[in-house]
Known about the structure:
By secondary structure, the chain is of the alpha/beta class. It has 2 domains: 11-21 and 28-149 and 240-279, D-Maltodextrin-Binding Protein, domain 2 (3-Layer(aba) Sandwich); 156-237 and 283-336, D-Maltodextrin-Binding Protein, domain 2. It is 48% helix and 15% strand. The chain has 14 helices and 11 strands. The protein has helices at residues 8-23, 41-57, 78-83, 103-108, 116-125, 128-140, 165-168, 179-185, 198-204, 248-252, 256-290, 300-320, 322-337, 341-345; strands spanning 29-35, 62-67, 89-92, 142-150, 156-158, 172-174, 189-191, 209-210, 229-232, 240-247, 294-297. It has a 6-stranded mixed sheet. Strands 2-1-3-10-4 form a 5-stranded mixed sheet, sandwiched between helices. Helix 8 (179-185) packs across helix 12. The longest helix has 35 residues, at 256-290. The radius of gyration is 20 Å and the shape is globular.
Amino acid sequence: xxxxxxxxxxxxxxxxxxxxxxxxxxxxxxxxxxxxxxxxxxxxxxxxxxxxxxxxxxxxxxxxxxxxxxxxxxxxxxxxxxxxxxxxxxxxxxxxxxxxxxxxxxxxxxxxxxxxxxxxxxxxxxxxxxxxxxxxxxxxxxxxxxxxxxxxxxxxxxxxxxxxxxxxxxxxxxxxxxxxxxxxxxxxxxxxxxxxxxxxxxxxxxxxxxxxxxxxxxxxxxxxxxxxxxxxxxxxxxxxxxxxxxxxxxxxxxxxxxxxxxxxxxxxxxxxxxxxxxxxxxxxxxxxxxxxxxxxxxxxxxxxxxxxxxxxxxxxxxxxxxxxxxxxxxxxxxxxxxxxxxxxxxxxxxxx
Length: 352
């Protein structure tokens, strides 16, 4: 009965949602969803899983057709495609819009972010999701909310060893979002490009290294086949929420019950993606070792410096951008609230 990937908890919630959704007006809807993805987990357990979950929760009344990146509009401009009404909905990296408003980076994760557990709590219990929706309404006239979230990313898949700050100097790195500026501060030579263009650029040596997703997500990209070094941890991206954007006309066509259904489906998809990625990441290191890759852990100095650069960048943005300042203040207050979490949540274990 339930969409593939539902947890038991999700299924229980689905039963509840089906109950009150059935009482709502049984209006049918068909929506077109633009994405930034050509395939892989972001498509399969993100956009497509969301469409399946919506269909299940609505008993088939709401159909979402998912289109690969570049079909309905530029892959890195999904929010604009939705704003213009070319697509009714979109699944994208919120951080892709950092050039228009750097506040996007705070919702999408950056070098100064907390980890995914804290990000989920801030979003769903600390006021983050309400800020997100208000920000998108005010700045673009669209609806925005989390859809899909990652654990910490791989720092890079690289053709050359990357361990120290010196190794970053001049590194031709594919990345996106505000990490472009931060990576430049650390001496790298970053560029951005859609996902479908990355592998051939890495294979030909146009790129030295690429950051994309987590250990497991990146298996499907094949980066490890042309880049022998896997560098961890992803200090540039300790967490990475992605975004569902909805055209305002499409949103207004929904009943209040169906809007809540959409929010519920997005939340279930997000939590399920986190659980799936976390489990699969635990297996992925061994995959890379068997594939002949070398696993490199970044020197502590790189990790400390990356976070320092991220926070300094955020402080600068907050001075001139009221929205950035508001969201940044909310996140810092949340971080202060959770500052002692390690003391009461973590039990030290001696490992062999």
